[in-house]
UniProtKB/TrEMBL annotation:
It comes from Lawsonibacter hominis. It comes from the Bacteria. The keyword RNA-binding does not apply. Transmembrane segments: none annotated. This is TRAP transporter substrate-binding protein DctP. NCBIfam families: TRAP_S1. InterPro entries: DctP_fam, TRAP_DctP_sf. Residues 1-18 form the signal peptide.
Length: 347
């Protein structure tokens, strides 16, 4: 029953988004269903993130072969920002990536990267859909129609030599981080935040250029970081958002029957992606522990110290949203209510 309800909500989502994103005066397409076969190009994440490799076959099945999708590794198209721009201008019709890969494009969705706010992918998913249904995610309507949201793996702190078990443990550490909020957090803790692509992390750890990294267990596994790291702190720093978007004109070219079939495929794929995220997390942790790393817990007292230490960053995030014309206070309030509800349900 829950899956049926979720699908109904998802279908409602896509048609309301099409209306809001300006696809014609009536807000939707008037494309006649003349039996046409549609061929679309989908820009995906790197090959080590296999979340969408089965999507073309699923869409072909759901649409009776009427929609055919070809996957393109994003690296062959340029940067993530380039690939998103190509989707908006119609060079490619579809785009799948982590929102964090295009800094500044999705400031409201960045709330799931606020440190020590959401603690698991399920909560991240609830936050994003709650924000959408309350009308706070119009940022995804810029010449595209969002077809699917899903959480990424959680970002965790992993270090060499000694565990991080107190605020003083951060002093002087050089730690790789990507998101701007995480960089601000580490620097406020007394660490030096070092931005670098994942491809450089192994050698940088091996040569002592950095002392640790903030990344997901999956990427630790894929990049064999268990060879050069010793400890993973079992207290996730932040989550992230994966999304699938489609060029607005390409979407509006579809007859309504194919829109429905496409959304059915997207909803099923969302469940698949969530399951893959959970599996890659488990596999990543298992591989890191097998490779010699220790997964360790921190005390409730240290957890509270971390929460207190990042409180100014949360206020800064809200202020930034308010300054950009969003209702940052309402967005944070809604997010905190969702987190409270999710944590209560987990008890």
């Amino acid at each position: 029953m829950k899956k049926i309800l979720s699908l109904v909500l998802a279908l409602g989502m896509i048609f309301s988004l099409a209306a809001c994103s300006g696809g014609g005066e009536s807000g939707g397409s008037t494309a006649a269903d003349d039996g046409q076969i549609y061929e679309f190009k989908l820009s995906i994440m790197n090959a080590d993130q296999p979340f969408m490799e089965d999507f073309p076959a699923l869409v072909e099945e759901k649409t009776g072969g009427r929609i055919q999708i070809t996957l393109y590794d994003m690296s062959s198209l340029g940067t993530a920002a380039d690939a998103l721009a190509m989707t908006r201008n119609g060079t490619v019709e579809m785009y799948f990536n982590a929102a964090a890969q295009t800094a500044g494009e999705f400031p409201v969705a960045d709330i799931v990267q606020v440190p020590f706010l959401a603690s698991n992918p399920s909560t991240v998913s609830e936050i994003i859909y709650s924000l959408y249904y309350e009308g706070y995610l119009d940022e995804f309507n810029n010449e595209t129609v969002p077809l699917m949201f899903a959480p990424t793996d959680m970002q965790m702190l992993a270090v060499k030599n000694s565990k991080i078990e107190s605020m003083g443990s951060f002093n002087g550490l050089k730690l790789r981080a990507v998101s701007g909020i995480a960089v601000d957090m580490l620097e406020s803790f007394g660490s030096s935040a070092v931005a670098m692509p994942m491809s450089d992390v192994y050698l940088s750890l091996d040569r002592g250029i950095v002392d640790g990294a903030m990344t997901s267990p999956h990427l630790m596994q894929v990049n064999a970081l268990y060879d050069v790291l010793d400890y993973i702190m079992e207290y996730p720093v932040h989550g992230g958002l994966l999304f699938l978007a489609m060029n607005e004109d390409a979407y509006n070219s579809l007859p309504d029957s194919l829109k429905l079939s496409l959304m059915e495929a997207c909803e099923e794929q969302r469940y698949r992606v969530i399951n893959k995220v959970q599996q890659t997390y488990s596999d990543g942790i298992e591989a890191c522990v097998a490779g010699g790393m220790e997964l360790y817990s921190i005390t409730p007292e240290f957890q509270q110290e971390l929460q207190d230490a990042v409180a100014p960053l949360r206020e800064q995030f809200v202020t930034g949203l308010n300054s950009a014309g969003h209702d940052g206070t309402a967005i944070m309030d809604l997010t905190e209510r969702v987190i409270e509800r999710c944590e209560y349900n987990l008890k």
